[in-house]
Amino acid sequence: MSSFIANTKDMQFVLHEVLKISEAGVPGYEEMDRDFTEAVLDAAGKVSSEVLAPLNEVGDKEGCVLENGVVRTPKGFDAAFAAMKEGGWTALDCDPEYGGQGMPYLLNCAVGEMFVSANMAFNMYQGLTHGAYSAIHAHGTDEQKATYLPKMVTCDWTGTMNLTEPHCGTDLGMMRTKADPQDDGSYLITGTKIFISAGDHDLSENVIHLVLAKAPGGGEGTKGISLFIVPKFLVNADGSLGERNSLSVGKLEEKMGIHGNATCVMNYDGAKGWLLGDLHKGMRAMFTMMNEARLGVGLQGYAVAEAAYQEAVAYAKDRTQGRAVTGAAAPEKAADPIIVHPDVRRMLMDQKSFVEGARAFTFWGAHLIDRSHKADDAEAEGLISLMTPVIKGFLTDKGFETAVSAQQVFGGHGYTEDWPMSQHVRDARIAMIYEGANGIQALDLVGRKLAQDGGKHVMAFFEMVKAECKSHDGDERMKPFTDALKAASKQLQAAGMFFMQNGMKNPNAALSGSYDFMHLMGHVCLGLMWTRMAKAAFTALDNGASDKAFYEGKIATGRYYMARQLPACAMHLARIETGADPVMALADDQF
Amino acid sequence: MSSFIANTKDMQFVLHEVLKISEAGVPGYEEMDRDFTEAVLDAAGKVSSEVLAPLNEVGDKEGCVLENGVVRTPKGFDAAFAAMKEGGWTALDCDPEYGGQGMPYLLNCAVGEMFVSANMAFNMYQGLTHGAYSAIHAHGTDEQKATYLPKMVTCDWTGTMNLTEPHCGTDLGMMRTKADPQDDGSYLITGTKIFISAGDHDLSENVIHLVLAKAPGGGEGTKGISLFIVPKFLVNADGSLGERNSLSVGKLEEKMGIHGNATCVMNYDGAKGWLLGDLHKGMRAMFTMMNEARLGVGLQGYAVAEAAYQEAVAYAKDRTQGRAVTGAAAPEKAADPIIVHPDVRRMLMDQKSFVEGARAFTFWGAHLIDRSHKADDAEAEGLISLMTPVIKGFLTDKGFETAVSAQQVFGGHGYTEDWPMSQHVRDARIAMIYEGANGIQALDLVGRKLAQDGGKHVMAFFEMVKAECKSHDGDERMKPFTDALKAASKQLQAAGMFFMQNGMKNPNAALSGSYDFMHLMGHVCLGLMWTRMAKAAFTALDNGASDKAFYEGKIATGRYYMARQLPACAMHLARIETGADPVMALADDQF
């Protein structure tokens, strides 16, 4: 069984010593002092360990069941969901006007990380609701907000997002779901949507579906798409639940992982829906939520990796096998714990240096979103827009890799379902796929984000890295960080230059390197994070911090990342610079 | 459902145009002309597609069941097993003296690749039997051979290998299973063995367990270990089956994949066994089979990847989504097939260039084993001993990565169990773990094989690479291959030099880089294979080969590997040269 303990200490370090949130000048951050965030994180950590983690295996083994059109969630999920609601965890960063607690999105992310580590499938029920809440909050009429948001803030009603259809996922322009306008201003929605996470279940009184569909007169492709609110039960004028809407669960998907979450085929048979936002502007409404949704998936990537890493460390300290090559470390035992072996350490260091770097990166991203939303900071908005595909694509790829590496520490035991490692790997796999498969993230990054606003944001990022390095000039201790970061950043710039010089003549030359660019940029971002974390750790040590082991460990872990992960940057650049020819050389029938 | 078609064409290319087996001068290869191997491969391909592949999903979904102490295999496995026996596929490279067909091991590997691609879990029943057959063939008395081998050649009786115990896998010195000598020359075996693949099932009349155990007087650690033949049913003097031995299945493991194969906990309760080979020399007996067994697992790595790649290609040609960035490729359709997109092609090229390189590498390894066994070629034996951990470790790591990449091509559909991709990924995962986890392979490579016989074999390999490059001097077409191979080989040599200069002072300095060295060497080996394949393809084209698309595709795929995969070598070298410090910096409690 999973034995997850939230790493609140590291979170506090990132919030207060790296991001220094209470000095950040973002509205709503004033109260975020160390004691306050510690209290919140500790309480959330307790829920994670005691309520959510014990249900993770149950969710995986039992899965969801569709019986007579109704989805039943695994045993214990209902009680845990009630506990989450009661603790106010569903409302943390929601608008106080609708019953939320109005805390920063950043803090919600920190708490969310724990919940995902403890039980990714379970946390999706409220995660999807939060996404739908945000959409209605941003685009709904006052009446719509008043009708739906208070119930969604508490998760009495949960939410979903309906984009994908059997024949179209990435290419939503081919969408077939139709919206027929009615005289009363409503629409009748007809079509089939697939891969609807939390599409139906027994945890809430109502499910508020947000459905993309084509209303007449919108034209071809994505231009004709609008977004609709389609509740499972219609809502009466007094807010009580009315009749059942004409929608049903066609099928529950059998999946590789996240068995505890109900992935539904949803059939809309003339279901009553109401336009959310502007007619024919549904894609735009979706896109405004995308930064948050994609950051949330990137967070899943490293949060599951954190859980897997914790298991691997515990196992490596407990399992005895062989002797340290430099002499017995535990001579009183028949063998040494396997953590003495360099190759086991390599795996653990890979895992640790990734997870901690990813946490800092994601928290920074959430902080940028707060800046953009709460402080109307256009630079922050531009930067997070650029970073979003990197957070989603890089962190989920590496998160999966990390879970696989953690599983490897267990040898044969990791392959059995008696240990939690198979589940972590199977769960982590989906994050590379949904919310835009990682190849699409790379396309978004190279095809759109690099050139956005005349390339302003990527230039700002390069300047930021340069300034960071310059600020440590003369600090010899920081040289292993700044030297590596400078080199990696130069490689990233060279890659960008290659795209500029070749992408216009042949777009395939840029797109053939897009995936490598996303990874190269991910490494630069984590290198930047490790540089900042190392500086914060040195500062703490200089100031006589009592917990020397923590800060020294932080610096050593950062050195590992710079020395052993950043060399991947040159490889990515070399691949990028081969251009389109190797990738596009074959005719279709030569495959 | 899986729709696997064996790539006999590529196999023929490797056998006859790269390895040129009929001119190789290895005893037993004389008959191996194009027509002969084509007939065998075509027949095996038919069995793979028609008998084995249709059962792959059945095996995954149904799994094995333990009922009243008896293991039941999935529906249809018994009939398929009977067909395999009847076709003589279990006896291909076995000794004619015991009913085998005496064909080269190389040909058996080619056929085995197809069987694994079609149904990995199923093929393990005969694969394990082949391993046990080889052990008895190499170490058994004439009587033991006469008793067991004829039945094992036909798979009327199947075999197993029992090494691991709950508390020891890698470190077999801690073994607790005991062998008590009896007056009649037999032993009573008592202990628990775990992870016993094909440990029990309903496909054969008898199961011949080979069990490692400690007999008195052998001393501490692995020195005291002997190997025993422990049949499920004792065999009477006339060869008929006698009483049931005192052994039982304690449990069937629930695993991440290979559900169709029964992974058993085996309890030996004073089971009757007979010494195989010399007393207290059980480890040596195991090691003599290890090259074959590990090559067999490396083969699983890329064979599953081949199956996954085939699915990905078919899906990428069929699924339409979006438009080619250079203009519609299928204007008559609502969207282009996704194979037009550079990032989809990148994935397919990664897959194709790996699988074909791995096939050539594995066939070459099998060819070296034939040379070593049939032609008493000591150089070949030294070389395959060096290559074995690379074949096992590199090909299974990359094979898994390839299966994951193929799954990614499917987007969300690849995550559902409606498509075969989840199974391929879950199945492929085990190959990185069993038969010595890949970290152990890296340890074997760097800690033992590099220095074996005074470093003679690795020097011979470097010379071989050098000679290969030199042989193409003046051939401009070969420059993209030889330039890249030379550079990679230099990086490999630099890594070896680093180990020599630092490993003596600090063994951790070498072991911290062992995993990267294994991958670096893997890339050099595949680079060498691609150089040879490119040369063979150019030669065929020069000779006016009619199938130009095949040979040109081969060259383009090789160029992709050299241009886009070999840049990993510099990364591995950079990591290796950081030595032990980054890896070993943390105290245990800093994790």
UniProtKB/TrEMBL annotation, chains A, B:
<comment type="function">
    <text>Involved in the assimilation of dimethylsulphoniopropionate (DMSP), an important compound in the fixation of carbon in marine phytoplankton, by mediating the conversion of 3-(methylthio)propanoyl-CoA (MMPA-CoA) to 3-(methylthio)acryloyl-CoA (MTA-CoA).</text>
</comment>
<dbReference type="InterPro" id="IPR036250">
    <property type="entry name" value="AcylCo_DH-like_C"/>
</dbReference>
<dbReference type="GO" id="GO:0050660">
    <property type="term" value="F:flavin adenine dinucleotide binding"/>
</dbReference>
<dbReference type="InterPro" id="IPR025878">
    <property type="entry name" value="Acyl-CoA_dh-like_C_dom"/>
</dbReference>
<dbReference type="InterPro" id="IPR037069">
    <property type="entry name" value="AcylCoA_DH/ox_N_sf"/>
</dbReference>
<dbReference type="InterPro" id="IPR052166">
    <property type="entry name" value="Diverse_Acyl-CoA_DH"/>
</dbReference>
<keyword id="KW-0274">FAD</keyword>
<comment type="similarity">
    <text>Belongs to the acyl-CoA dehydrogenase family.</text>
</comment>
<dbReference type="InterPro" id="IPR009100">
    <property type="entry name" value="AcylCoA_DH/oxidase_NM_dom_sf"/>
</dbReference>
<dbReference type="Pfam" id="PF02771">
    <property type="entry name" value="Acyl-CoA_dh_N"/>
</dbReference>
<protein>
    <recommendedName>
        <fullName>3-methylmercaptopropionyl-CoA dehydrogenase</fullName>
        <ecNumber>1.3.99.41</ecNumber>
    </recommendedName>
</protein>
<dbReference type="InterPro" id="IPR013786">
    <property type="entry name" value="AcylCoA_DH/ox_N"/>
</dbReference>
<feature type="domain" description="Acyl-CoA dehydrogenase/oxidase C-terminal">
    <location>
        <begin position="281"/>
        <end position="445"/>
    </location>
</feature>
<dbReference type="InterPro" id="IPR046373">
    <property type="entry name" value="Acyl-CoA_Oxase/DH_mid-dom_sf"/>
</dbReference>
<keyword id="KW-0285">Flavoprotein</keyword>
<feature type="domain" description="Acyl-CoA oxidase/dehydrogenase middle">
    <location>
        <begin position="161"/>
        <end position="269"/>
    </location>
</feature>
<feature type="domain" description="Acyl-CoA dehydrogenase/oxidase N-terminal">
    <location>
        <begin position="79"/>
        <end position="154"/>
    </location>
</feature>
<feature type="domain" description="Acetyl-CoA dehydrogenase-like C-terminal">
    <location>
        <begin position="461"/>
        <end position="586"/>
    </location>
</feature>
<dbReference type="Pfam" id="PF00441">
    <property type="entry name" value="Acyl-CoA_dh_1"/>
</dbReference>
<keyword id="KW-0560">Oxidoreductase</keyword>
<dbReference type="InterPro" id="IPR006091">
    <property type="entry name" value="Acyl-CoA_Oxase/DH_mid-dom"/>
</dbReference>
<dbReference type="InterPro" id="IPR009075">
    <property type="entry name" value="AcylCo_DH/oxidase_C"/>
</dbReference>
<dbReference type="Pfam" id="PF02770">
    <property type="entry name" value="Acyl-CoA_dh_M"/>
</dbReference>
<dbReference type="Pfam" id="PF12806">
    <property type="entry name" value="Acyl-CoA_dh_C"/>
</dbReference>
<dbReference type="GO" id="GO:0016627">
    <property type="term" value="F:oxidoreductase activity, acting on the CH-CH group of donors"/>
</dbReference>
